[in-house]
Write a structure and sequence with these properties.
Length: 426
């Protein structure tokens, strides 16, 4: 969202710092501006996002927008929800068609770069904006190009496995530290009639498992750049080992036998019903899984590697401003408010996420655990997000999915390599 290496050495998020419970809970810097521009002409900021219909977070966003309009009576926010599946195309249409668009969201460094392919000057330069000082420094790296910052980060997540801790405790099971221990755990669960890992056929699900193994194998941004330049082939052991390990858990019957017919929400149901012990996903799924059965304690674990397990960082959203906006200052004010400490804390409360701002309050015990992982010195950017564009990332993921559903490894690698070579030639 750029292609600088995100070897995340985040400063550890400070222990609980609570916001005031009075009024709206907003910081004084926003309260002080209330009423200052009431007599000015009304300015409309058009904001497009894939977040505004999220079951877990939409209320936080809409509440924040209402508060912003109350504090800034001269600014109106015209919000536009675009579903995830249509978001990339929807934003491209707006940008290419010259539609008025002031602020919009991106969900990965790859999508950030995808929009830059349309126009390298698509984003408004935010460098030097005072509100950027609140963010943990390395959270800005994916949206920094040639020393200039073009986006504001929101809450952080990690990808891997969520597991039913209540079930683990009842069986006397512990979180595995190595791949061999993970395989042994799956065998134990299978022997008890429990599905070890809930998996489904949605194209984006598998990446949370094999993508995590890529991080364990040392496939960082530098490795990905070499891959895209043609310096190393996709048949490199870092990649092949990751997708083979994923295929192994399928071949050994550690996933639902009908996984190719399941949607992601159905695989979540398997956890909620106590039929599965783990699920491949990200920490953003914690609330929706917990809602299925409040009696189960759900926790997060990294996908274990052969020699090491590396935390990966997934900054769910970057908020950016269209360089062609007619209202740059008002748009900056809106982004500063939406990504503020107060709003990130409220969003993190509901999504059990980790704010990307310094000294933020973290209320969830599992989020505290995740914060310790994503701020570790060895934490890295989640591998699929290191691929330079969203289009290429999706094609690689689709190629892996073909392999997982029966295509030979040689044929799958050949097809994916052709896609990478084609992207390089453009």
């Amino acid at each position: 969202m750029i292609r600088q290496r995100l070897k995340v050495g985040f400063v550890l998020i400070s222990a609980l710092v609570f916001v005031s419970c009075s009024g709206s809970g907003l910081s004084d810097e926003y309260r002080q501006e209330e009423g200052k521009t009431e007599e000015n002409e009304i300015v409309t900021i058009r904001y497009s996002s894939y977040l505004l219909d999220s079951a877990q977070a939409s209320k936080v966003y809409y509440d924040a927008i209402r508060e912003f309009e109350h504090l800034h009576p001269n600014i109106r926010i015209e919000s536009d929800f675009i579903q995830n599946a249509n978001y990339t195309a929807g934003i491209k249409i707006k940008l290419l068609g010259g539609e008025e668009l002031d602020v919009f969201d991106t969900w990965s460094p790859s999508l950030f770069e995808e929009f830059r392919k349309l126009n390298p000057n698509v984003y408004l330069d935010l460098t030097g904006s005072p509100f950027l000082e609140q963010f943990l420094p390395n959270t800005l790296k994916p949206v920094t190009i040639d020393g200039k910052v073009y986006g504001a980060p929101e809450v952080m997540h990690s990808d891997g496995l969520l597991y039913n801790k209540t079930m683990f405790d009842s069986f006397g099971l512990t979180v595995p530290g190595t791949w061999d221990e993970f395989i042994a755990l799956c065998e134990t669960l299978k022997g008890k009639g429990i599905i070890p890992v809930a998996m489904d056929a949605e194209w984006s699900t598998a990446q949370f498992f094999w993508g995590s193994i890529m991080s364990n194998n040392g496939a960082d941004e530098e490795w990905t750049r070499k891959l895209e330049r043609g310096d190393i082939p996709l048949s490199d052991e870092k990649f092949v080992d990751a997708i083979r390990k994923h295929k192994e858990i399928i071949d050994r019957g550690f996933v639902p036998p009908n996984w190719t017919q399941l949607m992601h929400e159905q695989s979540k149901d398997l956890i909620g019903q106590g039929k599965a012990a783990m699920i491949m996903t990200g920490t953003w799924s914690l609330p929706s899984i917990m809602e299925r059965n409040p009696n189960f304690e759900i926790d997060f674990m990294m996908v274990p590697g052969e020699e090491r397990s590396v935390p990966n960082v997934n900054i769910g959203t970057y908020r950016v401003i269209n360089a062609k906006t007619k209202h740059p200052e008002e748009a900056k004010t809106f982004v500063a408010f939406m990504n503020s400490k107060a709003n990130q804390e409220r969003l993190a409360d509901g999504a059990m996420a980790v704010p990307s701002v310094v000294s933020a309050r973290i209320s969830s015990q599992v989020a505290v655990k995740v914060s310790e992982l994503v701020t570790r010195e060895d934490a890295v950017l989640y591998w699929p997000h290191t691929v330079s564009t969203e289009s290429l990332q999706v094609k690689i993921q689709e190629g892996v999915n073909k392999y997982l559903t029966g295509q030979s490894l040689e044929e799958a690698l050949t097809e994916m390599q052709a896609v990478i070579d084609e992207a390089r030639s453009k």
